[in-house]
């Protein structure tokens, strides 16, 4: 049913193979950024806090696929010194702390780039490295609010509402930061030099919304929130409940698609107001809603699936993973536990991502392995361990 993500013998190396990434453990956006790089072949090491610390157990990274874990106490001077040495042999550092934290640890970009001029130092924060809010706390909803985008989201006569934390955290944060890293790696191939990436989620989500800014004067967004073409104002760009309590999504904007929608609904175009008659939209919504409520989701699918009416079922995660179209494309895959995840996108023809199907790393599981790889001696590692600067997870003891 699902594509098994397995590296075949003699397979072409993935696009980011050989790129060494250090990801300082943090909340949602930075782990997504690291996971994207890992999915496309980078060697990503998550630098975790020691597991005794409350913060370590709190972060609960569910986006650790394909990463290894090194547990290190950065608050100790010798812990910060370890990270400095690691950065000397790394290509990318992903850093998710508020402005000033890394500088206080003696790990700011001016220090690390002096020691490794090829390092790409990616700073992923809500408000960015400068400006009035640079040192302020915030979450997706706050970044979305400051970007202007939140003001556009929501229905008529309702408060603005954020679509969970997808837009600022993940699209404007994790994905934009990953794009910045890949751009910087591409440029480094020419110049031989690394650089600092200031990835602000406010700016990332604002940039993502460029179309909204640039289409304002086209009249697409001239009405109040929830009364425009694409924000639930139009009856032909809306979701409707079916008789079995599920939903259909309608996006029939162009007249030729709209005509097919009307036909599928069993209505007569000649008896209806013009598609773009704004004043009739609320009434048309009611009419469409009453028609959609008469059949099940499956029945509507059988009516609309072979048409260009732009009508699709609103699927649960479970239904999405088993939908015929997604199955034919192997759009979802199972890991070793049989848990389903979306396949990495986009699909590259020659060097596609091969996401790991193994379990996520335990905190500190690969501490020794990674330090040896980066040139630390067994003696140095033993000393760091006895000083409680690092943590080495003994799996045999914990199984």
Automatic annotation (TrEMBL):
<dbReference type="GO" id="GO:0008111">
    <property type="term" value="F:alpha-methylacyl-CoA racemase activity"/>
</dbReference>
<comment type="similarity">
    <text>Belongs to the CoA-transferase III family.</text>
</comment>
<dbReference type="GO" id="GO:0008206">
    <property type="term" value="P:bile acid metabolic process"/>
</dbReference>
<protein>
    <recommendedName>
        <fullName>Alpha-methylacyl-CoA racemase</fullName>
        <ecNumber>5.1.99.4</ecNumber>
    </recommendedName>
</protein>
<dbReference type="InterPro" id="IPR003673">
    <property type="entry name" value="CoA-Trfase_fam_III"/>
</dbReference>
<comment type="function">
    <text>Catalyzes the interconversion of (R)- and (S)-stereoisomers of alpha-methyl-branched-chain fatty acyl-CoA esters. Acts only on coenzyme A thioesters, not on free fatty acids, and accepts as substrates a wide range of alpha-methylacyl-CoAs, including pristanoyl-CoA, trihydroxycoprostanoyl-CoA (an intermediate in bile acid synthesis), and arylpropionic acids like the anti-inflammatory drug ibuprofen (2-(4-isobutylphenyl)propionic acid) but neither 3-methyl-branched nor linear-chain acyl-CoAs.</text>
</comment>
<dbReference type="InterPro" id="IPR044855">
    <property type="entry name" value="CoA-Trfase_III_dom3_sf"/>
</dbReference>
<dbReference type="InterPro" id="IPR023606">
    <property type="entry name" value="CoA-Trfase_III_dom_1_sf"/>
</dbReference>
<dbReference type="GO" id="GO:0005739">
    <property type="term" value="C:mitochondrion"/>
</dbReference>
<dbReference type="InterPro" id="IPR050509">
    <property type="entry name" value="CoA-transferase_III"/>
</dbReference>
<dbReference type="Pfam" id="PF02515">
    <property type="entry name" value="CoA_transf_3"/>
</dbReference>
<comment type="pathway">
    <text>Lipid metabolism; bile acid biosynthesis.</text>
</comment>
<keyword id="KW-0413">Isomerase</keyword>
């Amino acid at each position: 049913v699902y594509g098994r993500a397995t590296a075949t013998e003699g397979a072409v190396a993935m696009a980011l193979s050989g790129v060494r990434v250090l990801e300082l453990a943090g909340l949602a956006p930075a782990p997504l950024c690291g996971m994207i790089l890992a999915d496309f072949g980078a060697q990503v090491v998550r630098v975790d806090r020691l597991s005794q610390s409350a913060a370590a157990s709190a972060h609960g990274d569910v986006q650790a696929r394909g990463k290894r874990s090194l547990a290190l106490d950065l608050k100790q001077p010798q812990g910060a010194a370890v990270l400095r040495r690691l950065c000397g042999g790394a290509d990318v550092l992903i850093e998710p702390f508020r402005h000033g934290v890394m500088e206080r640890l003696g790990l700011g970009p001016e220090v690390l780039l002096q020691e490794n001029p090829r390092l790409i130092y990616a700073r992923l924060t809500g408000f960015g490295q400068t400006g009035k809010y640079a040192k302020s706390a915030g979450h997706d909803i706050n970044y979305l609010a400051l970007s202007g985008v939140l003001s556009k989201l929501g229905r008529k006569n309702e408060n603005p509402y954020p679509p969970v934390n997808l837009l600022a955290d993940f699209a404007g944060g994790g994905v934009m930061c990953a794009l910045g890293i890949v751009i910087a790696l591409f440029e480094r191939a020419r110049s031989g030099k690394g650089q600092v990436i200031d990835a602000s989620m406010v700016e990332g989500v604002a940039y993502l919304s460029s179309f909204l800014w640039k289409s304002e004067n086209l009249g697409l967004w001239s009405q109040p929130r929830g009364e425009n073409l694409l924000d639930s104002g139009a009856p032909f760009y809306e979701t409707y409940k079916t008789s079995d309590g599920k939903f259909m999504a309608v996006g029939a904007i162009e007249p030729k698609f709209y005509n097919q929608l009307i036909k599928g609904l069993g209505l007569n175009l000649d008896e209806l107001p013009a598609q773009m008659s704004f004043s009739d939209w609320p009434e048309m919504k009611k009419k469409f809603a009453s028609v959609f409520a008469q059949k099940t989701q499956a029945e509507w699918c059988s009516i609309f699936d072979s048409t260009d009416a732009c009508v699709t079922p609103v699927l649960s995660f479970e239904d999405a993973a088993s939908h015929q179209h997604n199955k034919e494309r192997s759009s979802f895959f199972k890991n070793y536990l049989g848990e389903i995840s979306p396949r990495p996108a986009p699909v590259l023809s020659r060097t596609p991502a091969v996401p790991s199907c193994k379990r996520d790393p335990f905190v500190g599981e690969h501490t020794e392995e990674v330090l040896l790889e980066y040139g630390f001696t067994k003696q140095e590692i033993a000393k760091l361990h006895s000083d409680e600067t690092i943590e080495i997870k003994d799996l045999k003891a914990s199984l």
